[in-house]
Amino acid sequence: MSTLRLGALLLLLALPVETPAQLPQPGPLAFLGFEAGARLESVHRRLRELGSRGLRCDRSRRDPRVQECRASLKDPATTQPLELWLSAIDSQAGILTVSGAVSGVDIDRWKRALEAQFGVVGATVQGGQWMLQWVRQGRMLRLTWKIDQGAKVASVSLVDGPVLDGWGRAREVDPAAERPTAELPSAEPASSP
Questions:
Q1: Residue 77 carries which DSSP code?
Q2: pTM of this prediction?
Q3: What's the first-to-final CA gap in the chain, in angstroms?
Q4: How many CB atoms lie within 10 A of CB 16?
């Protein structure tokens, strides 16, 4: 073997090899510590960890298993104000969205963090709105951003297909069925500011 080939081989052997632990791992789809399909108690606890007052929830009059909840929080990296909205079925988030007016730098940071965790996906553009989407085991995470009245607005939505499917099947079997749900122990009342 020539000295040049031996040197090239040694150089290749010295380069770091990307191991499976360094590649994006298939974990639960999550953003800022909120997971698709999370229990309300878990969402409330995470909000409190981020300095928020927690969830404010209203129960649906049409289906007592459904709750609509809101909260205000701050992006832990920038302290930029964000809003969280979720729809829960039997105290489990079916749809959870975090949104706010952010800078282009913030959108890039969110995008890089999601791609590092879940892999690179192609962007879809529809009109003036951009979207990246990841799907795992019936769950979806979608990052969207656009310019709205001169400001960049971004949102990350987490959708849990099994939670929504279970609710749909239960409604098909007995649309009038009412199952009691656990109350969120430490959530702020809906009327609080």
A1: T
A2: 0.73
A3: 76
A4: 6
Give the Cα separation of 80 and 72 in Å (integer): 11
- What distance in Å separates the CA atoms of residue 133 and residue 144, rounded to the nearest whole number? 9
Look-up: residue for tokens 């928020």?
52
Overall residue count recorded for the chain in this entry? 193
d(CA 128, CA 26): 31
pLDDT for residue 75: 94
Residue 14 pLDDT = 41
For 124-139, the pLDDT digits (tens) are: 999 999 999 999 989 9
Burial class (CB in 10 A: 0-12, 13-18, 19+), 136: middle
- Token pair of 104 as six digits: 């282009």
Name the region of 137 (left: φ>0; alpha: ψ -120 to 50; beta: rest).
left
Q: How far apart are CA 35 and CA 96, in angstroms?
A: 9
Strands (E) in the chain, as ranges, are 30-31, 34-35, 56-59, 66-74, 81-89, 92-101, 124-126, 129-136, 139-148, 151-160
Identify the residue whose tokens are 């959870």. 96
User: What is the model's pLDDT at position 55?
Assistant: 94
143 sits in which H/E element: strand 139-148
Mean pLDDT (whole number) for 100-118: 94
